[in-house]
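TASK: fixed-backbone design
INPUT:
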């Protein structure tokens, strides 16, 4: 059974796309192995349990992605996985830099890495623009392919809008043209099933803290590891591709979280769909002048996420009042973007959302510890705080 953490804090938490709380079972597993110190690379009897934890984590992660355990390589998380995949593909070409295709709405760890190769080594880059729903067009991508295109890197689900991308179609195009295809799957794994084998992608990046695991651990799926370059040279761990003694504490949590995701993912998806439907219905019934940024259709976007704007109100002011007066936490953008000085969302900007709407935008993302009454409390709080802000600004709230 998937047990939620104790306490009411998680009932008012609506920022699951930034990070997820760990379940009590995952916390319990991590606590149980804290005394374990044996190095899994050791041949002693004491290391037997450490080897078992490592093997279980790899198997559970492979099951979640529908691939073989030998194709799973542990990293510190999504950013490292994205960096590793992109750098390993492009580094062999730095003497004859070619062309890269990505999108304008990728995570900063993808955009910054590709931008580095563009600036440092002279690679040319096509940044595909999404339509108003946040979707990338496969035909547009195919038309952008050049004879020297050396990499296609596209996320499967956007972190700010939840928009799902047509990665099956893009994978087919990449395979037909024999171009390496990397998928940043960080936001999708644990929210919607993904079969890396059937989609036939070459690389997929994953982060455990996005699906109720601990922070600081993730993995990179590599379709053909024999042809891949090492990230860290040394003792030969991870088939010689990422040396260094494994973080067994984090891996035990990843193993537990991946196992729970395999068992409960269908139920989680259905629960999120019900909550999203309720949230959309309540917002429609309210007086709030809401504009949705991106697709809300559950067939086109993650079921746990909505990006909206209440025109005339600043998103950060609304988010601050929700937290201070109701303890409710929402996001005004991706967590990583919030660490940078520039706060205007590059995702919404690429979607041609007007600047005043972007400044009003908040992201609401919920998860397995969210209950129906929490959704109702959120909409009620939105009405109260929007009304207060409109009054402060001397505007008529609901006519």
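OUTPUT:
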């Amino acid at each position: 059974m998937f047990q939620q953490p104790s306490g009411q804090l998680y009932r008012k938490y609506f920022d699951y796309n930034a990070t997820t709380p760990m379940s009590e079972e995952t916390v319990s597993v991590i606590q149980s192995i804290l005394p374990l110190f044996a190095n899994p690379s050791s041949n002693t009897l004491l290391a037997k349990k450490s080897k078992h934890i490592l093997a279980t984590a790899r198997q559970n992660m492979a099951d979640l992605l529908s691939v073989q355990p030998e194709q799973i390589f542990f990293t510190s998380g999504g950013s490292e996985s994205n960096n590793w995949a992109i750098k390993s593909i492009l580094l062999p070409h730095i003497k004859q830099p070619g062309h890269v295709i990505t999108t304008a709405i990728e995570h900063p760890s993808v955009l910054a890495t590709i931008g580095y190769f563009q600036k440092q080594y002279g690679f040319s880059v096509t940044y595909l623009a999404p339509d108003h729903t946040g979707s990338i067009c496969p035909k547009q991508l195919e038309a952008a392919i050049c004879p020297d295109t050396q990499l296609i890197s596209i996320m499967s689900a956007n972190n700010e809008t939840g928009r799902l991308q047509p990665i099956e179609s893009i994978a087919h195009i990449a395979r037909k043209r024999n171009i390496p295809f990397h998928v940043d799957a960080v936001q999708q794994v644990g929210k919607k099933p993904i079969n890396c084998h059937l989609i036939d992608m070459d690389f997929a990046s994953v982060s455990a803290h996005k699906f109720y695991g601990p922070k600081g651990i993730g993995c990179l799926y590599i379709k053909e590891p024999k042809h891949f370059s090492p990230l860290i040279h040394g003792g030969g761990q991870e088939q010689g591709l990422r040396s260094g003694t494994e973080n067994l504490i984090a891996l035990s949590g990843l193993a537990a979280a991946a196992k729970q995701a395999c068992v409960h993912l269908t139920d989680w998806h259905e629960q999120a769909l019900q909550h999203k439907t309720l949230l959309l219905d309540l917002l429609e019934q309210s007086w709030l002048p809401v504009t949705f940024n991106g697709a809300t259709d559950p067939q086109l976007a993650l079921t746990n996420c909505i990006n909206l704007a209440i025109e005339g109100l600043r998103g950060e002011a609304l988010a601050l009042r929700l937290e201070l007066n109701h303890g409710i936490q929402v996001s005004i953008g991706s967590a990583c973007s919030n660490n940078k000085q520039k706060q205007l969302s590059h995702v919404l900007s690429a979607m041609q959302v007007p600047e005043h709407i972007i400044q009003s935008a908040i992201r609401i993302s919920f998860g397995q510890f969210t209950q129906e009454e929490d959704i109702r409390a959120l909409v009620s709080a939105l009405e109260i705080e929007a009304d207060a802000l409109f009054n402060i600004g001397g505007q008529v709230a609901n006519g």
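COMMENT: The two ends are 48 Å apart (CA to CA).
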